[in-house]
Amino acid sequence: MDNIAYSHSSDATDRSTPTHRKASGVSSTASQNKNPHRRISTGSVLNNDRASIVLPTDKTTLKRHLNLFSGVCFIVGIIIGSGIFVSPKGVLRRTESVGLCLIIWVGCGVVSLLGALCYAEIGTVIPKSGAELAYMKEGIGSVHPITGDVLAFVFNWANTFVLKPSSLAVLVLTFSQYFLSGIMDAGIVRLGQGHTEHLQNGFSGTTRKPLAVALGTCLSDTFLKIKTLLMSCLIAFYSGLWAYDGWNSLNSVTEELKNPKRNLWLAIVLAVPSVTMLYLLTNISYFTVLSKAELLSSSAVAVSWGEVVLGPAVRVLPILIGISALGSANGSLFTAARYCMVGARYGYLPEVFACIQRSRLTPLPGIVLQGTLAIIFCIPSNIDQLIDFFSFVAWTFYGLTFLATLFCKFTKPKADRVINVRQSRKRMRT
């Protein structure tokens, strides 16, 4: 890990200058008296000491390089990764009804949009990278600091070692199902920050292509044999919500978003409803072409659909779907590394994960950690179990973030809110 810069200072009063370090290619920054630095102070979880990550402001801090278009592509590219090609079978298996299945898909879209609006509101109140990590620590922490600190610590470890690696594993396994194992002869993710942005913009466009051709009409027997068991519907929601996961991805890179007060909520409002409409039309197309038995027995729903509709041209479809899953994995790894970086800033992870690679301006240690853990999660290779496990744990923390949004309404009433969910609801009623 050459060209990684960081320094560490610890003092109860936080008045000392940073410690000088230089060993095995890891260089520390100069003293604060000689070179100005951006100091990011964090509280230690285990004691009352204070740690700080000192980074040169002109070389190793993250740059605001994501504009509105990049933000929309970022969200769309991560959401439409593998879910629409994997989840339809899981939702239909648990509901046993085409009509109820479509209702659940729309319901998942509405829930995701409401959640995204809450994230947009708290994201403008607490405009920091790390999303849930920062919101729990500063939102819930504004009411009870110890509780906020503990919840942020638990989330950071669960997200680092369970949520993000399992999400990456599902995307990689989906890629392997649709793409021939011998085709990929290069790395998955470019570590260059500018390259990652261009890749994500391109992936989001490629993602919409297999969806654009998957539209149809003429449904029959829509509401036959509706399974009304509440538990089955809840589990079906897990599968559906997995397909929408990623609606909060832009909050994790707020520090790299240009004009976040405007672009954060606007990107969310543009991206999530568009994805909901694409998902609904795609599912209608699936059910128009395939019977329930054919859909449930298919290991690759989109390919089975393509064999009927596209004929010989179906050979191109797995490549497009594989690129879609790969693009979502690229964006997911992009955000996962930022979670590690912010967690290290707060002192929840070892300090090395707060390091930024000098030349490419990326959190290289976090990328290596998340990629390694994702490979380990691929070993069981059971996508359905990974999805159910991921959705339950993820939405538990999403709920805590919604709670933090409510707390901020009372503890930060005068904060500059570009979007206010409660006021928007009142306007809709009037």
UniProtKB/TrEMBL annotation:
GO terms for cellular component: membrane. It comes from Didymodactylos carnosus. GO terms for molecular function: L-amino acid transmembrane transporter activity. This is Uncharacterized protein. Gene3D superfamilies: Amino acid/polyamine transporter I. Coiled coil: none annotated. The chain crosses the membrane at residues 66-85, 97-120, 228-244, 264-281, 319-340, 361-383, 389-408. InterPro entries: AA/rel_permease1, AminoAcid_Transporter. Its main location: membrane. It is found in: Membrane. Residues 1-10, 25-34 have a biased composition (Polar residues).
